[in-house]
Design a protein that fits this description.
The protein is α+β, with helices and mostly antiparallel strands. It has two helices and three strands; from the N terminus they run H-E-E-E-H. It has one domain. The mean pLDDT is 90.
Amino acid sequence: MISRAQRTSRLRQQLRQQWEELGRVMNGLGQIQGILRGSLYLRERKCGKSGCRCQRGQLHRDLTLSVRHEGQSRRKSLKGVDVEKLRSWVNQYRQFRRGRAKMVKLFGQMLVAVDGVGKLQEVQWDRVNP
Protein backbone atom coordinates (compact mmCIF):
# COMPACT_ATOMS: atom_id res chain seq x y z
CA MET A 1 0.00 0.00 0.00
CA ILE A 2 1.20 3.46 -0.91
CA SER A 3 1.56 5.91 1.96
CA ARG A 4 -0.02 9.34 2.10
CA ALA A 5 3.40 10.96 1.70
CA GLN A 6 4.10 8.88 -1.44
CA ARG A 7 0.73 9.76 -2.99
CA THR A 8 1.31 13.44 -2.20
CA SER A 9 4.77 13.23 -3.74
CA ARG A 10 3.39 11.64 -6.91
CA LEU A 11 0.70 14.31 -7.24
CA ARG A 12 3.29 17.07 -6.78
CA GLN A 13 5.48 15.42 -9.41
CA GLN A 14 2.49 15.32 -11.78
CA LEU A 15 1.91 19.01 -11.11
CA ARG A 16 5.53 19.84 -11.97
CA GLN A 17 5.29 17.88 -15.22
CA GLN A 18 1.99 19.53 -16.12
CA TRP A 19 3.46 22.95 -15.32
CA GLU A 20 6.40 22.25 -17.65
CA GLU A 21 4.02 21.08 -20.39
CA LEU A 22 1.97 24.24 -19.90
CA GLY A 23 5.15 26.28 -20.40
CA ARG A 24 5.88 24.46 -23.67
CA VAL A 25 2.34 25.09 -24.91
CA MET A 26 2.57 28.77 -23.98
CA ASN A 27 5.92 29.09 -25.75
CA GLY A 28 4.34 27.62 -28.87
CA LEU A 29 1.48 30.10 -28.65
CA GLY A 30 3.99 32.90 -28.26
CA GLN A 31 5.47 32.02 -31.66
CA ILE A 32 2.22 32.69 -33.48
CA GLN A 33 2.28 35.84 -35.62
CA GLY A 34 -1.17 36.72 -36.93
CA ILE A 35 -4.26 34.54 -36.93
CA LEU A 36 -7.35 34.53 -39.08
CA ARG A 37 -10.46 32.69 -37.97
CA GLY A 38 -11.72 31.22 -41.18
CA SER A 39 -11.36 28.52 -43.83
CA LEU A 40 -9.92 28.39 -47.31
CA TYR A 41 -11.59 26.18 -49.87
CA LEU A 42 -11.90 25.73 -53.61
CA ARG A 43 -15.31 26.82 -54.88
CA GLU A 44 -16.79 25.53 -58.11
CA ARG A 45 -19.75 27.30 -59.64
CA LYS A 46 -21.66 28.29 -62.74
CA CYS A 47 -21.62 31.89 -63.92
CA GLY A 48 -25.04 31.77 -65.61
CA LYS A 49 -23.97 33.00 -69.03
CA SER A 50 -25.48 31.02 -71.87
CA GLY A 51 -22.91 29.31 -74.06
CA CYS A 52 -20.24 29.35 -71.33
CA ARG A 53 -18.23 26.21 -70.70
CA CYS A 54 -19.70 26.03 -67.18
CA GLN A 55 -23.09 25.25 -68.74
CA ARG A 56 -21.52 22.08 -70.19
CA GLY A 57 -20.20 20.95 -66.81
CA GLN A 58 -16.77 22.63 -66.73
CA LEU A 59 -17.38 24.76 -63.65
CA HIS A 60 -15.46 27.91 -62.78
CA ARG A 61 -13.05 27.37 -59.88
CA ASP A 62 -11.71 29.94 -57.46
CA LEU A 63 -10.11 29.90 -54.04
CA THR A 64 -12.45 31.35 -51.41
CA LEU A 65 -12.07 32.52 -47.84
CA SER A 66 -14.99 31.82 -45.51
CA VAL A 67 -15.19 33.76 -42.21
CA ARG A 68 -17.81 34.55 -39.57
CA HIS A 69 -18.56 38.25 -39.21
CA GLU A 70 -21.21 39.62 -36.86
CA GLY A 71 -22.76 36.18 -36.55
CA GLN A 72 -23.01 35.51 -40.27
CA SER A 73 -20.87 33.52 -42.66
CA ARG A 74 -19.08 35.65 -45.23
CA ARG A 75 -17.22 34.44 -48.32
CA LYS A 76 -14.61 36.30 -50.28
CA SER A 77 -12.99 35.33 -53.55
CA LEU A 78 -9.21 35.56 -53.31
CA LYS A 79 -8.20 36.87 -56.71
CA GLY A 80 -5.16 39.12 -56.41
CA VAL A 81 -4.64 38.33 -52.71
CA ASP A 82 -1.51 36.85 -51.09
CA VAL A 83 -2.98 33.37 -50.64
CA GLU A 84 0.09 31.97 -48.88
CA LYS A 85 -0.12 34.64 -46.18
CA LEU A 86 -3.83 33.95 -45.70
CA ARG A 87 -3.16 30.22 -45.57
CA SER A 88 -0.49 30.82 -42.92
CA TRP A 89 -2.88 32.94 -40.81
CA VAL A 90 -5.64 30.32 -41.06
CA ASN A 91 -3.21 27.53 -40.11
CA GLN A 92 -1.90 29.57 -37.20
CA TYR A 93 -5.47 30.06 -36.00
CA ARG A 94 -5.88 26.29 -35.95
CA GLN A 95 -2.56 25.98 -34.07
CA PHE A 96 -3.78 28.63 -31.62
CA ARG A 97 -7.03 26.72 -31.01
CA ARG A 98 -5.16 23.44 -30.46
CA GLY A 99 -2.84 25.17 -27.98
CA ARG A 100 -5.75 26.72 -26.16
CA ALA A 101 -7.53 23.36 -25.95
CA LYS A 102 -4.34 21.77 -24.59
CA MET A 103 -4.14 24.52 -21.94
CA VAL A 104 -7.74 23.91 -20.87
CA LYS A 105 -7.04 20.19 -20.56
CA LEU A 106 -3.83 20.80 -18.58
CA PHE A 107 -5.56 23.25 -16.22
CA GLY A 108 -8.24 20.65 -15.54
CA GLN A 109 -5.63 17.98 -14.81
CA MET A 110 -3.71 20.40 -12.60
CA LEU A 111 -6.83 21.23 -10.60
CA VAL A 112 -7.49 17.53 -10.04
CA ALA A 113 -3.91 17.08 -8.80
CA VAL A 114 -4.08 20.16 -6.55
CA ASP A 115 -7.38 18.97 -5.09
CA GLY A 116 -5.79 15.57 -4.50
CA VAL A 117 -2.87 17.12 -2.63
CA GLY A 118 -5.29 19.20 -0.57
CA LYS A 119 -7.35 16.14 0.28
CA LEU A 120 -4.26 14.17 1.33
CA GLN A 121 -3.00 17.04 3.49
CA GLU A 122 -6.35 17.70 5.12
CA VAL A 123 -6.47 17.15 8.86
CA GLN A 124 -9.64 15.51 10.18
CA TRP A 125 -11.51 17.72 12.60
CA ASP A 126 -11.91 14.92 15.13
CA ARG A 127 -8.11 14.63 15.44
CA VAL A 128 -7.75 18.25 16.54
CA ASN A 129 -7.21 18.70 20.28
CA PRO A 130 -8.98 21.80 21.63
